Amino acid sequence: xxxxxxxxxxxxxxxxxxxxxxxxxxxxxxxxxxxxxxxxxxxxxxxxxxxxxxxxxxxxxxxxxxxxxxxxxxxxxxxxxxxxxxxxxxxxxxxxxxxxxxxxxxxxxxxxxxxxxxxxxxxxxxxxxxxxxxxxxxxxxxxxxxxxxxxxxxxxxxxxxxxxxxxxxxxxxxxxxxxxxxxxxxxxxxxxxxxxxxxxxxxxxxxxxxxxxxxxxxxxxxxxxxxxxxxxxxxxxxxxxxxxxxxxxxxxxxxxxxxxxxxxxxxxxxxxxxxxxxxxxxxxxxxxxxxxxxxxxxxxxxxxxxxxxxxxxxxxxxxxxxxxxxxxxxxxxxxxxxxxxxxxxxxxxxxxxx
Length: 354
Known about the structure:
The chain is α+β, with helices and mostly antiparallel strands. The chain is about 20% helix and about 45% strand. A hairpin with a 2-residue loop joins strand 10 (about 180-185) and strand 11 (about 185-190).
């Protein structure tokens, strides 16, 4: 040892030292790159097969869940740079998987590598959603109805589909489930596990289809000195759709879009728009439903009229062009109003203006 030279404080070796004045062998001996328990516990609901991870239930693949559990309990030295983790899965049975974990990285520019072997064990635990379902738990009922008539099967299907789309578009929650659903006299009922879900979906329906909603609350008990209530929302879908042609004051109007208090309608014969309340709308008559209108290819056209083939009798018919015709479009939308075909202007509305 040279007099006054730098040396390792543990073994006395000279040469390259770390900031802790240790040689590389001593530094590696005293430093632990990572720690991992010999067993890692996970939980899976036997009813819906959701996994519990980070205090939340959700659907995961087996490998994705196992790796998430390991990353949650794996301890790595905070000074590590360029950290790398690789895992090898060796399933033993449906509940146990042996996993080899390779951890590598650099601490003070010295390369480390550790290989762990751990057993991931999966136990049964019923999730809150299945617990509530089994106990017939619910917080809200959404009653789907139509103004002035019974909901058609196609309408029920369209409205019901929006529920699945809405659920997919929001963050998951254990209470966001259906307790019961089905046809009832006059419409369709959805019994839900969450008031927030019922209110959120109702707002979604109002934006998409328009209509009105009414809330009522009933007290079902008390807990911790507070009333426990259940919510009932009666949603009434308009007996109209976007694109329907209605008759009002001897003129024809297209339903253009929904708004909170009613509908925006646009005239069929000229560029003119106005608003109607829900009460005024119910006083009108639908003369051409959107689903009954058709798009036709034009055979001939001039500046004011066009010819098309009527597939009902395979005869060539003439129709006046709509006011928004651009002079070059090859097809138009027509509706049978009264005893003749009428060309309809294009509509681009549909959303509820909140």
